[in-house]
Amino acid sequence: MARKKRGAGLALGSGGARGLCSIGVLLWLKEHDVRIECVSGSSIGSIIGGAFAAGFTPEFMKEIATSFGWKDYLSVVKLSFGGKSILEWKKIEKIMRTNLGDKKIEDLEIPFACVASDIDSGREFVFREGDLVEAMSASACMPGIFPPVRAMGRHLVDGEILNPVPINLAKELGARKVIGVNASRSVFPERMSHNAGRIGLLEKVDDWMRESVAGKPLLSSINPGKWKALVEKEKRGRRKRNIMDIFTDSLAITTARVLELTELKTGPHFMINPGVGAFQTFDFDRAGEIIDLGYGETERVKDELFHFLDSRKG
Questions:
Q1: The pLDDT of residue 238 is above 60
Q2: Alpha helices in the chain (DSSP H)
């Protein structure tokens, strides 16, 4: 008798570029014939999960991620002068709209839901239907970095704040067994299972600006000498925090505590924890390494994962 195909719901977590490890997990699950019954997502997990539910293959997502370098990313983000955020989201949304069109969540090939944080009420807002791109955007807009998304009469920001790995949503979608992917950042070097060779945000922007404008600072309001000093400081101490690190490290601490509390409430599930804690939120130019870590960690825990999937409990 043929063995019944293994199946599970998938909860893809937040983490910025670190969340790209979910693509590696998807690749492994596909290669090992694990059927994905439904997908829930938070932040970048909602973008990857929504694309997968809409029919994008893990191979195609890996191709996109690895061909989209840091300079490409900079070409689609724009400084915001509206007072609500550092960067604008419009071009990123336009790219998603170009690839996904006006797909509705309720019409996707695989059941999907994602979570955002309502900054008016302080509560979770869950997208189970409606415009897919709008839901992805609301779930992924880091507060302060990108502007809130106005939807359903609410101001919505990153789902990571309240539900970084939405296992409960996958269960609500009908999954009896749920595989979670945790791509949280570690702010404690001794807990980092991978050395990312830290290259800071300032250094990346500096390299891009020098190539783009023949060595002249792009932001004319910044004193060239002061800018150079900031960059050199970053190069000397990879673990010294700049303004972006302060924000993301603070969020990482909150995320870790929220995960501790929510995991106690969600019941049986299997959490995959790729060693991506040393990568930074905007390390999209390291996509290949991050995806490989997701694949490699799933391979490492495959025996426990298969035991979980094959057990009667769920």
A1: no
A2: 21-31, 44-53, 58-67, 70-76, 90-100, 132-140, 167-172, 201-212, 224-236, 243-265, 287-300, 302-310
